[in-house]
Specification:
By secondary structure, the chain is α/β, with parallel strands linked by helices. The chain has one domain (about 1-265). Helix content is about 40%, strand content about 20%. The strands form 3 sheets. Strands 5-8-9-4-10 form a 5-stranded mixed beta sheet, sandwiched between helices. A 3-stranded antiparallel beta sheet has the order 3-7-6. Keywords: Repeat. This is Nephrocystin 3-like N-terminal domain-containing protein. InterPro entries: NPHP3-like_N.
């Protein structure tokens, strides 16, 4: 997902909030495959430009996630490796995960993880069969924004990616926003944000979308227990969860390909950090 102003400049500078001027900002898609984009209007509803800007500004007050989006976008610009692509796409664990959902852990050395996640996101978005939506989050602990490595940052980022498409807003996100408008003393809890994401996911699944979430650098997360529970709950909805973490080379299987190894968790199996 990228952000651009009306004059075409991507990722305009920001001051104290996500956007310098929300009304001059639009979202361009990229999370749906072609089949999914053809069905977006069955899930999302057109909204006035000001409404989209207001919801984005409100989400930014819950957790500043824009820096994370920029970092994630840069990481996803990695060049592909054709040999690695053939290995990954033919791997039995990856094939099973892609078809059934569940939780797939990618562990290994940083360079191998980056290339693997790039291959996964590209493969999912290029799917020619079922309508598919892919959300991506990177736990970035190298910036001044605390939420970059927090559970709340992940939730707000996924709400932007799954709750808003172009000038359309999912009704569940709109309801959450309305319930938290100015005048309401309480900000939505992490549980509220997660419940809204699950409601959006159920709606997508009912309309026969395949839903995937790619979470990079889980080992940098400040609240790994909360993220683990969230991943389990989403996997129970048949969402494919891909989680990566860096490990020392001595912890890896000697037969690991390209400095990474895949671990596919069975349904109900404990997801360890």
């Amino acid at each position: 997902m990228s952000y651009s102003s009306d004059n075409g400049d991507e990722n305009p500078g920001r001051s104290n909030s996500m956007f310098d001027n929300a009304n001059d900002t639009k979202i361009t898609g990229g999370q749906f495959n072609e089949a999914g984009r053809d069905m977006i209007t069955n899930v999302y509803y057109p909204a006035p430009r000001d409404d989209v800007g207001e919801v984005l500004e409100w989400l930014a007050t819950l957790a500043e996630y824009s820096i994370n989006h920029l970092t994630a976008s840069k990481k996803m610009e990695s060049e592909s490796d054709s040999e690695m692509e053939r290995w990954l796409l033919d791997d039995s664990k990856y094939i099973a995960w892609k078809g059934e959902g569940r939780i797939l852990c990618i562990q290994g050395l940083p360079d191998g993880i980056d290339k693997t996640l790039f291959m996964i996101t590209q493969d999912l978005k290029q799917s020619k069969e079922d309508p598919t939506v892919v959300s991506y989050y990177y736990f970035d602990d190298n910036n001044d924004s605390g939420p970059g490595s927090s559970f709340r940052g992940l939730l707000t980022s996924f709400l932007v990616q799954m709750g808003i498409q172009d000038q359309m807003i999912h009704h569940q996100l709109k309801e959450l926003y309305k319930s938290s408008e100015v005048g309401n003393d309480s900000s939505p809890s992490n549980e509220d944000l997660a419940d809204t994401l699950m409601s959006i996911t159920r709606d997508l699944k009912q309309k026969r979308f395949k839903v995937y979430m790619v979470i990079e650098a889980f080992d940098k997360c400040e609240e790994n227990k909360e993220v683990q529970e969230f991943c389990k709950n989403m996997a129970d909805l048949d969402v494919g969860i891909a989680v990566s973490k860096c490990v020392d080379a001595t912890e890896m299987d000697g037969d690991s390909q390209y400095d990474v190894e895949l671990i596919l968790y069975d349904e109900g199996e404990e997801f360890n950090d």
